[in-house]
Amino acid sequence: MLQTPESRGLPVPQAEGEKDGGHDGETRARTASQERPKEELGAGREEGAAEPALTRKGARALAAKALARRRACRRMNRTVAELVQFLLVKDKKKSPITRSEMVKYVIGDLKALFPDIIARAAEHLRYVFGFELKQFDRKHHTYILINKLKPLEEEEEEEDLGGDGPRLGLLMMILGLIYMRGNRAREAQVWEMLHRLGMQPSKYHFLFGYPKRLIMEDFVQQRYLSYRRVPHTSPPEYEFSWGPRSNLEISKMKVLGFVAKLHKKEPQHWPVQYREALADEADRARAKARAEASMRARASARAGIHLW
Amino acid sequence: MQGSTRRMGVMTDVHRRFLQLLMTHGVLEEWDVKRLQRHCYKVHDRNATVDKLEDFINNINSVLESLYIEIKRGVTEDDGRPIYALVNLATTSISKMATDFAENELDLFRKALELIIDSETGFASSTNILNLVDQLKGKKMRKKEAEQVLQKFVQNKWLIEKEGEFTLHGRAILEMEQYIRETYPDAVKICNICHSLLIQGQSCETCGIRMHLPCVAKYFQSNAEPRCPHCNDYWPHEIPEVFDPEKQREAGISKSNKKSLRSRQH
């Protein structure tokens, strides 16, 4: 999907050192050069008529032109900035961006300057964020962002989720506890397990911050865990179960495998949980097959249209 | 925008990866940001000394300036934890949300935002928000659907939910403060100490001035007789502790503060 011939639309990036001055200079130079021919034609007559020394009217006209140029420059900079943000946000959703979308939502009536704007946006994306803006479909003017930063080693990758590595481990432990206890675990049991791991609910931990906040707020609000009051308990007791997001993102078999590794045993060591995990795998496989089949059907329908 | 004489910072892969990851998360707490920074150094420049976080961020911000964005530092309103987010400097409304949500969903957020700003406590009840579902622009939304959308806002860290009530997440305040102040200039509440937007806080019962909980904590730190900075009347509320990442604190202190605040509301 990413193998395209080098797009001709993007200019050679500028040297790093002169980035700031270079850009402003470039813009000013460009707009100036765009305007100069017109000026020479239009104003030539005026200048010829008036004396070489500027009259008040001439001075005002020049000042007005300079102001207009500055405004155009600012507007251009703003549009480039908006395009950069637009591209970043769109890319986050992993959808390719079309030229017409860019024109519709960002560029508007500066459409004629599109090549210039997109070139500058591409340079910002490269220098500031480390993304390359690649034209992925020349005919339909579709673009994607490619990450130019070096790919990570596996252990680095866990860290790269920016704190999600250790947090994910903690979440796995809790999900494991819940699963092994028949899909429900009392709050007290969870804290007991964490206590054994050397964590206290309200003591700041260098990896997790405040565990209580992480679990009760982040994990519950992010829907990884569900937190419910156990009925008919007095004083009220609460229990945790898997939240809907956990069901989507993690499988029972994976969690069972994690628990098994912790105990240095095989998943089959727990027959009840193992059977449950197998059933879960079968469900997921069926759901996946259904989804793939419908995607293939859609793709072949689209291909059929293209043949015409 | 005229040629700035200030030297612009330099971006290396360390900074780029940091930016990419910060963008992925939307908002991060300070301790997480420091870990992230160390991770980026480890990956791209193992032998370099890690810059002080403030300098590191200022360096990146000087480069981001021409893009009208910056890494902004704020504190959570309930207990003063420092947080960081990449925010838009131009007031283009709730633009960052605009691509993730449909028109009627954005309007629901706007309605919730208005209720939150107008409220005395900074919280809007789920019931009150859902009652406005008929007034939404765009495709018609049922209450059940609206409940899900509210949860989506929570998951994406635009709103916080506490006991069936909603308030703005620190991220939303960081991102939208300017927009909020410009759009609701009469309804908006301001902290008497830091002069920033105030959603949750304590207020003086005599003269009505308001302060953020972390601002109260700092202002009245080790003051045996806290008095209103404006009218000098005795400050009637419980003074929270100043946030200290090293110290052991009850993570639920925000809840107890909220209760004492709300019990005084009419």
TrEMBL record, chain A:
Ribonucleoprotein is among the record's keywords: no
Gene: MAGEF1
Organism domain of life: Eukaryota
Entry-linked PROSITE patterns: MAGE (PS50838)
Protein name: Melanoma-associated antigen F1
Residues of the MAGE domain: 76-277
InterPro entries per UniProt: MAGE (IPR037445), MAGE_WH1 (IPR041898), MAGE_WH2 (IPR041899), MHD_dom (IPR002190)
Protein source organism: Macaca mulatta (Rhesus macaque)
Chain intervals for the UniProt region annotation (Disordered): 1-55
Keywords, ordered alphabetically: Tumor antigen, Ubl conjugation pathway
UniProt cross-references to PANTHER family, sorted A to Z: MELANOMA-ASSOCIATED ANTIGEN F1 (PTHR11736:SF61), MELANOMA-ASSOCIATED ANTIGEN MAGE ANTIGEN (PTHR11736)
Composition bias type Basic and acidic residues, residue spans: 16-48
GO biological process: regulation of macromolecule metabolic process; regulation of primary metabolic process
TrEMBL record, chain B:
SUPFAM superfamilies given in the database record: RING/U-box
A Pfam family annotated for this UniProt entry: SMC_Nse1
Residues covered by the RING-type domain: 191-232
EC id: 2.3.2.27
A GO CC term attached to the entry: mitotic spindle pole
Group of enzyme by EC: transferase
Gene3D superfamilies referenced in this protein's UniProt entry, alphabetically: 3.90.1150.220, Winged helix-like DNA-binding domain superfamily/Winged helix DNA-binding domain, Zinc/RING finger domain, C3HC4 (zinc finger)
GO biological process, one term: double-strand break repair via homologous recombination
PROSITE patterns: ZF_DAG_PE_2, ZF_RING_2
Domain Phorbol-ester/DAG-type: 176-228
Compartments in which it is found: Chromosome, Telomere; Nucleus
Keyword Nucleotide-binding part of the UniProt annotation: no
Biased composition regions of type Basic residues, renumbered to the chain: 256-266
Region (Disordered): 245-266
Matches recorded under CDD domains: RING-CH-C4HC3_NSE1
Molecular function as annotated in GO: protein dimerization activity; ubiquitin protein ligase activity; zinc ion binding
Catalytically driven reaction(s): S-ubiquitinyl-[E2 ubiquitin-conjugating enzyme]-L-cysteine + [acceptor protein]-L-lysine = [E2 ubiquitin-conjugating enzyme]-L-cysteine + N(6)-ubiquitinyl-[acceptor protein]-L-lysine
UniProt function note: RING-type zinc finger-containing E3 ubiquitin ligase that assembles with melanoma antigen protein (MAGE) to catalyze the direct transfer of ubiquitin from E2 ubiquitin-conjugating enzyme to a specific substrate. Involved in maintenance of genome integrity, DNA damage response and DNA repair.
Assembly information from the UniProt record: Component of the Smc5-Smc6 complex.
Family: Belongs to the NSE1 family.
Protein name stated in the entry: Non-structural maintenance of chromosomes element 1 homolog
Organism: Macaca fascicularis (Crab-eating macaque)
